[in-house]
Amino acid sequence: MKKILVVEDSHTVGKVIRHVVNASCDFNGLYASSFAETRSIVTEHKADIFAALVDLSLPDAPDGEVVDYTLSEGIPTIVLTGRADDDTREKLFKKGVVDYVNKEGRYSYSYAVNFVNRLHRNQNVKVLIVDDSPSYLKFISGLLRLYLFQVYTATDGVEAIKVLVENPEITLMIVDFNMPKMDGFELVRTLRNKYEKTDLVIIGLSGEGDETLSAKFIKNGANDFLRKPFNQEEFQCRVMHNVESLEQIAAIRELINRDFLTNAYNRRYFFQNAAGMYEKAKSEDTPFAVAVIDIDHFKSINDQFGHHNGDSALKFVTNIIFESLQRFLFARAGGEEFFIAMPGLTNTQACLLIDRLREVVASSPIEMDGELRVITFSAGVSNDLSNSLDDQLKIADANLYRAKDAGRNLVIGDDDF
Ligand SMILES: Nc1nc2c(ncn2[C@@H]2O[C@H](COP(=O)(O)OP(=O)(O)OP(=O)(O)O)[C@@H](O)[C@H]2O)c(=O)[nH]1
Questions:
Q1: Which of these, 18, 72, 174, 354, has the minimum number of CB atoms within 10 Å of its CB?
Q2: Which residue lies with its CA nearest to atom 11 of ligand 1?
Q3: Helix 267-284 crosses helix 232-257 at what angle (to 10 degrees)?
Q4: pLDDT tens digit sequence for 158-198
């Protein structure tokens, strides 16, 4: 596992940072209290060090020599300092530090540690810069790479759309206003026909003197705006803030769409997504099967072994279904009932698949209070696109109750009469 290097000579500050690292850092800490110790730790662990929090002034390195050292070793460096006047800050950014933090108590150390976590996550974030100025393209790319983002570039709107189509995982764009072929407004307007603000963040950029540009950019669909020339700190704050917002929205979406107990998708997510699959199958005239699964005698599991064991059984069955049916849409519909949408499968294929799943669950007893208990489920399958999605689920449900009536631990489809 990668590590965070912390260089701090004050015992008290070191102790607070250690606490913050243990509580909230994605990495384990390596700690040094002098330049000499830093050298020996870096020599031994260089390949494992992801980033460093470095005190600007140490007894054996009073003028920031340790910062030059960690930077020369290629380690992303965040400076801890008690004296960040404008001049010091500018010099630090010119040297290539990622950020600086004034030593002002626990909050500032939390900020520094969270910033390292942010850098870690940035490695998975793809950013597209669109600017016809080679110098700005280079400058912004350099900053974004310093923050460990994956960077793509385009020099006009037409090229930008092409890059975006080829790389659909891009979630952040930085778009200049004044460009040939298609200006920034037109590009943003075009993109907003397809990408929501909550899926693709666009930060507008302009060097024009017009004070109204920022509002115009935002009214055309940009999330935020930066006026050239900007300083590194302002750029960093805007970019990080927007990326964090996007992540928070994604996290909220996950919470809305997932069932709390099993972490399977919930009923709302199922209907939102199954409807599109159903329509696609209908328009392409391809098969579309649904299944309703219900655990047998689940009440007796609760009654005999208690609710917590019932919960464990639900999680256990969910995991098996999830592992086995990853390519299909699967959700906990409520209680001990699950829905599955299987585009591309005929009734026979879907019945065979669900029956195989039934065998796996039935042959995987789980331990409850020291006793091995076999869990089974019954299922109904339906595949008839002349019915609506709701009706198809109702028929699958009716088939499920036939399976229950026929003795349970059984799968019944449209043809099994
Ligand atoms: N532990 C636990 N139990 C739940 C949860 N949701 C629903 N249940 C229980 O699931 C049981 C479902 O019971 P019934 O609808 O009678 O069905 P069954 O006992 O499975 O019987 P058949 O479906 O006829 O085989 C009820 O006792 C619910 O309280 C849950 O999240 N956790």
A1: 72
A2: 299
A3: 90
A4: 999 999 999 999 999 999 998 888 889 999 999 999 999 99
Give the pocket of ligand 1 (CB within 6 Å): 261, 294-299, 302, 307, 310-311, 314, 335-336, 404, 408
pLDDT of 84 higher than 80: no
DSSP code of 364? -
Ligand 1, atom 3, residue with closest C-alpha: 310
Torsion of CA 403, 404, 409, 412, to 10 degrees: 10
Question: Could you tell me the CA-to-CA distances from 132 to 41, 135, 197, 239, 324 in Å, in that order?
Answer: 44, 9, 24, 20, 49
What is this model's ipTM? 0.96
Inter-residue contact 232 to 143 (CB < 8 Å): yes
The tens digit of pLDDT for each residue in 42-65 reads 999 999 999 999 999 999 999 999
Identify which of 282, 291, 356 has the alpha carbon closest to the alpha carbon of residue 328.
291
Q: What is the pLDDT of residues 313-327, one digit of tens each?
A: 999 999 999 999 999
Q: How far apart are CA 89 and CA 282, in angstroms?
A: 62
CB 413 within 8 A of CB 347: yes
* Atom 16 of ligand 1, residue of closest alpha carbon: 299
Which of 113, 103, 61, 67 minimizes the C-alpha distance to 82? Answer: 103
For range 31-43, the mean pLDDT: 97
Furthest CA-CA distance within the chain:
86
Give first-to-last CA distance, the chain, whole Å: 57
